[in-house]
Amino acid sequence: MKIYQDHIEQYKQEAEALEEQTRRYSLLRLVAFIFSFILIIILANERLLEVVWVVGPICIFVFVSLLKHYNELMRQKQRANFLKQINENELLRLKNELSGFDKGLSQLDEEHAYMADLDIFGSHSLFQLLNRTTTESGSLRLAQWLSRPATKPIILERQQAIQELNPNIVWRQEFEAAGLPFANTNSEYQKLLNWVAGDNQLLSKKNVYLAGSVVLGVLALTLGLLSFFNSTSPDLKFYLPPFLIVMFLNYRILKKVAPLSEDIIDSTHQNVQTLGGYQMLARTILSEEFQSKRLQGLQKDLQQKDSSAIDEMGSLKKILSFFQLRGTKRSDNNKFYGLLNQFLLFDIYCILKAEQWKSRNRAHIQSWVEAISEFEALNSLAGFAYSNPDFAFPEIKEAPYHIQFETLGHPLINAENRVCNDFNLSGQGQITMITGSNMAGKSTFLRTVGTNLVLALMGAPCCAKSGQVSHMKMFTSMRTKDNLEEGVSSFYAELQRVEQLLALITSGEPIFFMLDEMFKGTNSEDRYKGGVSLIKQLNELNAFGIVSTHDLELANLSGKHMIVSNLSFNSKIADGELSFNYKLTEGICTDFNASELMKRSGIKVLKDIESLSLD
Question: Which of 41-50, 515-524, 590-599 has the lowest mean pLDDT?
Answer without folding.
Answer: 590-599
